[in-house]
Write a structure and sequence with these properties.
The complex is a heterotetramer, with two copies of chain A and two copies of chain C. Chain A is α/β, with parallel strands linked by helices. Chain A has 13 helices and 15 strands. Chain A has a seven-stranded mixed beta sheet, sandwiched between helices. A four-stranded antiparallel beta sheet of chain A has the order 11-12-15-14, with helices on one face. Chain C is globular, with a radius of gyration of 25 Å. In chain C, helix 4 runs parallel beside helix 11, helix 5 (131-148) packs across helix 6 (166-173) and helix 11 packs across helix 14. In chain C, the strands form three sheets. Chain C has a seven-stranded mixed beta sheet, with helices on both faces. A four-stranded antiparallel beta sheet of chain C has the order 10-11-13-12, with helices on one face. The chains are: A alpha/beta, C alpha/beta. The structure holds pyridoxal-5'-phosphate (2 copies).
Chain lengths: 452, 452, 485, 485
Amino acid sequence: MPFVPHTEEEIRDMLSIIGVDKIDNLFDEIPAHLKIDGLANIPEGMTEMEITRLMSSRAAADGHPLCFMGAGAYDHHIPAAVWQITTRGEFYTSYTPYQAEASQGTLQLIYEYQSMMTALTAMDVSNASLYDGASGLAEAVLMAVRANRKSKSRRILMPRSVNPVYQKTCNAIVCHQDIELVTVDIDTSTGLTTLDALQPWQDDDIAALVISQPNFFGNLEDVDALTNWAHEKGALVIALVNPLSLALLKPPGEWGEQGADIACGDGQPLGAPMSSGGPYYGFMCCQKQHVRQMPGRIVGCTLDQDDREGFVLTLQAREQHIRRSKATSNICTNQGLVVTASTIHMALLGPQGLARVAASCHQNTVSLVEKLAAINGVEVIFDGARFHEAVLKFNKPAAEVLAALADKNILGGYDLSSEFPELDNCILVCATEMRSDDEINTYAQALEAILC
Amino acid sequence: MPFVPHTEEEIRDMLSIIGVDKIDNLFDEIPAHLKIDGLANIPEGMTEMEITRLMSSRAAADGHPLCFMGAGAYDHHIPAAVWQITTRGEFYTSYTPYQAEASQGTLQLIYEYQSMMTALTAMDVSNASLYDGASGLAEAVLMAVRANRKSKSRRILMPRSVNPVYQKTCNAIVCHQDIELVTVDIDTSTGLTTLDALQPWQDDDIAALVISQPNFFGNLEDVDALTNWAHEKGALVIALVNPLSLALLKPPGEWGEQGADIACGDGQPLGAPMSSGGPYYGFMCCQKQHVRQMPGRIVGCTLDQDDREGFVLTLQAREQHIRRSKATSNICTNQGLVVTASTIHMALLGPQGLARVAASCHQNTVSLVEKLAAINGVEVIFDGARFHEAVLKFNKPAAEVLAALADKNILGGYDLSSEFPELDNCILVCATEMRSDDEINTYAQALEAILC
Amino acid sequence: MLIFEHSTKGRSTKIQAPTSADAIKDIPQALLRATPAALPEVSEMQVVRHYTSLSQKNFSIDTHFYPLGSCTMKHNPRACNTLAMLPGFLSRHPLAPEQYSQGFMACMYELQAMLCDVTGMAGFSLAPMAGAQGEFAGVAMMRAYHDAREDFGRKEILVPDAAHGTNPATATMCGYTVKEIPTLDNGDVDVAALKAAVGPQTAGLMLTNPSTLGVFERNIEEIAATIHKAGGLLYYDGANLNAILGKIRPGDMGFDVIHSNLHKTFSTPHGGGGPGSGAVGVSKRLLPFLPLPMVTKDNDVYRWLTEKDCPQSIGRMSAFMGNAGVLLRAYVYMRLLGREGMHRVAEFATLNANYMMAQLKARGFEAAIPDRHASHEFIITLKSQAKELHVSAMDFAKRLLDLGYHAPTTYFPLLVPECLLIEPTESEAKEALDGFIEALVQIQQEAETNPELVKGAPYTLPVKRLDEVRAAKQLDLAWGSIPRT
Amino acid sequence: MLIFEHSTKGRSTKIQAPTSADAIKDIPQALLRATPAALPEVSEMQVVRHYTSLSQKNFSIDTHFYPLGSCTMKHNPRACNTLAMLPGFLSRHPLAPEQYSQGFMACMYELQAMLCDVTGMAGFSLAPMAGAQGEFAGVAMMRAYHDAREDFGRKEILVPDAAHGTNPATATMCGYTVKEIPTLDNGDVDVAALKAAVGPQTAGLMLTNPSTLGVFERNIEEIAATIHKAGGLLYYDGANLNAILGKIRPGDMGFDVIHSNLHKTFSTPHGGGGPGSGAVGVSKRLLPFLPLPMVTKDNDVYRWLTEKDCPQSIGRMSAFMGNAGVLLRAYVYMRLLGREGMHRVAEFATLNANYMMAQLKARGFEAAIPDRHASHEFIITLKSQAKELHVSAMDFAKRLLDLGYHAPTTYFPLLVPECLLIEPTESEAKEALDGFIEALVQIQQEAETNPELVKGAPYTLPVKRLDEVRAAKQLDLAWGSIPRT
Ligand SMILES: Cc1ncc(COP(=O)(O)O)c(C=O)c1O
Ligand SMILES: Cc1ncc(COP(=O)(O)O)c(C=O)c1O
């Protein structure tokens, strides 16, 4: 029996200790008419050899198209050491560290993770992870509403330059608590959220402003001005950031006069493979004064009976297993293993390494944009500063062009037209450090052939 | 600097402690005119990302032809757990267990391995591994010459039904010690080593007879009769066996009246991927009385100061680091990691599992042979009992047929004609448990198309 | 030592990043970072050594018996990991066109179908990323259902007092108020109290069955009828699905919505805290509300269902499609088990739990619900030990660690004093159960003869008992945030 | 506990073998096994748990500083493992036709070329599977060379007394008698003694340079001239190549044959005892004798060199092509290092060794060769501790284990009494070296104040000091072979 070690003899012995004749008797409290006799529609069990064959052929069937797509998931190099260590049984098969003394490995690692995230974001504290960037943004919104004591409002300013799926996810999660996500328009010439666009809410009570840096189009917002604007009117600032970009860009803790209040985003660029969208993790950092409003687990350093340092889950009184219906969030299981990978990833890369990766992604994208923009029928529509993603406009419908590229084994980018009608024929492209000059040229040649 | 952690400051500190100005001064005893200034012809260093790209494309370039080739390397399923545990750093990056107390993991595992091998072979003792099956056979021959006190001869009877590359390797290794490998012919109708064929040496002083079970053609020798024949004349018996087959076949320790004296072979079928030929490992077992003549490391169980069980390398006085020019062999580094994998593999499969794998390989081969033999121009030339390999004869040159199959992505088998001129147009085929009915049919259809 | 303490300024492992990169010229200084992030600067070898050694400081399924009740810590087959991490799966961009996704989508489609089958539901979405998010999706669907019928007066969710904390927390997130329903001493929900609580304000009831007390809710049909009659919906918290797999299906019991913790029942690893999956299933009337995305099949081609196909969907729970890698692992596990394996999971999980309970009772321990069969888990209460010997359930738990066993769940469910919730799972061999029983017996003897020994435990782990109060008072949540001594 | 002690008759993990197989009918009973092999019958979970736990009982590079002299225990980059285990490489049948092998063969071809380059030899074969087999191939080639010239009188191989045991053992396997050459106190070979020993009977000399004493052989040119003048050949034992990589090449020193332990210099993991690779290189005149197979390139297509191409080859060392997976790892490592990395290996290995030697001398330890620079390793002798405190090098070694350091090589080379041969390698950071030095200083103090403490070590490992004498006397080499107490 797969994964059931019992021999016939043991089963007999155990039943006799229990005092029943057969295993089925243990289910005698279940109403007989509800009992089923197995699951006939489930396929027969496979051996490991058979499932290996099946999965290998399915994985192979999906091919390896050349990826110039970003839009929230990025094709980065991950050192071999990262997942080899992460999948060690002791990390891979342990539960949430409820028994601290028997889980110092995981706990210390999370403490190190929290320390790395505060270093990257220049914020005071970090939690141990949320599910992903999009749902993490929802938690940040809920947290901001709780944390902003000065504001009575449940309104959040949400620029349209925030990843549209993040906006949708956020809304799906916060909509039941009378929270209103107020859309702020994009400046169509710069692709940015401007102070002008915020003007309508100048005098309104607003709980928080979301600032995405870079924004969904890869454009760099004027984070100092936006942050100051929000703080001046008593709104909190939720920074939505790509953590890899922070190796180069000004960290949220240093935005404006006071820094952002909450920083969140998706940890995928720091060691998680693209893997069809998950598991990634949502990170969240905040200023010290808001720590008790932060959702999710937090690890703290403490002492043992001999005054040796050790690590425990702390501030648990915020969480659902203690506070129940009054908890900061319902989150329980988080994305621990991906955090493990990410911590090892950051340690391997170091500050310089991460900065070089970020710079190299950016340079590759610059070079890609240059080469594509040289093609007849391609136009770069925003020209301010950006980071490693860019919007291109074709002289043909984007869907058509992308399909033609896909037939040539190229994922050409993200089609912006359905979410942004005003960006008709536009796509979002990205070339990470993984894309070689040859591959960039392949793209350019393929696109030229399609457009001309 | 790759894998060199020194910072500039540390280098300065260390040099000043040593009392030299620069690292190069540490090499001042090397004659200056012999010193080189780096290695200009070595290519520039790559990042891990770059080498990953290169190796992935090379691995992919070699494709995945459908494998019906055996001939000493077999395409078996290996449970995922095997190499995940084997490549854990503590096994993967430790040295030979010279400090027993700090190496109980490796030592206990080898002891368990030795126990499993003695169980499989029904021999008394096992060593901790030799390099591979072929070189292991050479060590067995050298050992037999040392161990056979009754014989003054340095002659070994080597049937031609032994894997021809094993014969060559064996000869290359033993030839310097005045040992003669005397060829015994194959019975061309049965593909076996017969007592008749041994008749010429009936009255000669012979140190040992090698018996391969199954033999290179997959045929099953009459091991009882051959063993008795050898023992009656004072020759030792070296059993060369496929360890997987021993889950089904009579183990060497039970051959004839007294059992074989030495059992050896290649451990590849027990958990080592085909991997272009290595690393595999040579196993070697023997009867108790010969243990001091056995080459290679041996682990023994002993007690510590508190009378707790523990494991150490033992009988080291046979080995090169103690006995130097009088050692049983020069072997030092062996194939420990593959033994680790193999031990885990055997534990996962268990006696029943291994027997089912062996039976399934055999049945697949039977089915393959049936299907191929039904094709016009294909003939099965030996028809006695066999295990999971068989010889087929075509109506065309084997090389031609195999090349045509290869073009259809099929490794059709091993061409016997160059090593066995009398087996012109013949190939050796094998279908392990990995080959599905569909794949067997694919082969049959392809072959039919080629031959007809 | 922390990784930061191994750091030396200027140290790096060059091979992991492009060797050089030109300075960034096209981003204004004001948007750039002024000083490098204070991340550790260490060599690859130091990283490998540090985290390998850290890992050894964990108990885990791969090293220890881990009978953590309500968590289903069973064997995590290694094949699931290997196959979910095949390069083709790892490198798939989540937004890759369907032509490059058929292999992956086939797995998701079949997983949806198998989950429908084992739960008796009409449709499944794999979107939620853990049990709690599954609960959120489930309760949000209940609300969407009522709203779609313009039945806006239902403001309350009923939750038994034995429920997991995520249940009430979820109800709040969905904008509901929570009403607790008491549990009887025999472990069943107090149906009378339920009937009194139910009404037109009732949106639904969240229930785990078997409950967190480790017994099967015998009045489930009456409960279902009560809720349904009042116009409410029934939510099944699938954390305990392992107990009934292949024996009875939540759909057949009358549940309208269910989440399944794939990281429990379907054995995806818990990874020291996650990731998991809280796939949600619904009965027919709730189908339009399932969260996105889902996979469907048209003419043998798999395609994604989106907002266009499902305008009433409660929406998206994540940026892409949830924890895809976890879903692949669960899929492999289910295919390995197959039809013949599913019901054996419940049978042997139940056999193991009842065997342990019988043995512990025979050795003098007090079961919380002594007269009924346990499901896949059961509770012992150490309230008399606490009272008479002043040795608490926590002390027993810590001492178990010394003896090489991970502790059971302690102090949950909240209504049983000094409790240990013990869930052995089907994959443990009898020897492991016997060893654990002997360990508890030994600790009981120690508690009687030398209580200080038990109260001081653990002794053999990397640290002794940690001061949790200090941790919460003198917050130290990041390296360098407060000066070290 | 042994895996056999976890075994229960009838237990199995079904998923690893075909579920059923018909009974074998076409093999006569007399050839079949009568009773199943007594292998353990355990579940997958028990296997995972048992071997995971066993692994934790090992010191390793991934967990500990491991300065085992002559063994070059440096960091084993994880990428080498991952890339050598790509499915395409693992599934390649060794006899696959060249059309399905160009990717693999390209790596082998380039590895041969890089090895020629770093050693200054004319050709390389990757066939030998460890250092000792490389030695065998090398000395066999020397013999083949002499034989081919019909120079049959050369029956003797010269070996310095500091040589590794494999050197004399190899000479014997190749049919030679061994003559030992003494070493001077300054670590150099006694050239006068060498000159006296050399003659028309001399087939060649086997030498490690730097020697196992950790110093560079300064008279190498004179030695080479002496041997060559007598018609002998010079063999380079490449175990210490790490010391000179990119600084000086054996070929330039006059060596005719060399083996390189790729599992040392090129960092393939040692795997608890192997596998390794002892690739052999030769100067031009020995090219025809290289062992098979090798890879060559014709018109941009790689192909195997076989007996047809190389009729004078000494033949094959294994059934296929040696330890291919190890060779792939070494190839990846060399490409990662590249041109810029190679000489740094020697430089920093040497810096680390000399730094440690300087510090230890300053702290009162006696270096075996105090007045010369160390190479990548060096020796301290504890003969005065042994004499005065009755604490031996072995005692120091065992006590080091307690302090978290793997011991250096002990009692080798044989000519230095109570020696520790210390090789830190280039990949260790200064902190690790300093920690080790402090540990030795601490043990020295313990030896002075509390010698019994040191003599009783280790205390903190899974077992205390093991009785090796008992192991050799009461042989217990397999489970069940003798009754257990
Ligand atoms: C009964 C019960 N419900 C819900 C949950 C929440 O599941 P998750 O941790 O996956 O969010 C758990 C898990 O701890 C549980 O045991
Ligand atoms: C100097 C020296 N020569 C030869 C060898 C033998 O190499 P191997 O163990 O790879 O056979 C060693 C390794 O221990 C060595 O240190």
